[in-house]
Design a protein that fits this description.
Oligomer: single chain
Number of strands: 2
Largest sheet: 2 strands, antiparallel
Structural class: mainly alpha
Shape: flat
Helix content: 40-55%
Distance between the termini: 34 Å
Mean pLDDT: 82
Number of helices: 3
Length: 97
């Protein structure tokens, strides 16, 4: 870890995630390694199913619009808001970024 800035380098962050979040390259018993591998596999299959289901729907673009608004940067003290207005001609999306 970079003690000067109190932040990890990209390489250190990736290694941290591999070890701490996914149990990759850690000193663990054979049983713990099998359990970790099984959980990673289940998580991967679950995320694949979720992604396929989410993007197979014709309305997935609405979730993308909400996610885009959530990704915005708001000023301190500003409560994010999002509104949708649907008319026969258009869908209007407004947020207060």
């Amino acid at each position: 870890m970079n003690d000067v800035e109190g932040k990890r380098s990209p390489h250190e962050l990736i290694e941290y995630i591999r070890r701490e979040e996914y149990g990759v390259d850690v000193d663990a018993s054979e049983q713990e390694q099998r359990r970790s591998k099984s959980l990673r596999s289940k998580l991967g299959r679950t995320l694949k199913i979720l992604a396929e289901d989410l993007y197979s729907k014709q309305t997935h673009f609405v979730l993308e619009l909400i996610q885009n608004a959530d990704d915005n940067t708001y000023l301190d003290g500003v409560l994010p808001s999002l509104s949708f207005s649907l008319s026969p001609e258009r869908l209007l999306l407004v947020n207060n970024e």
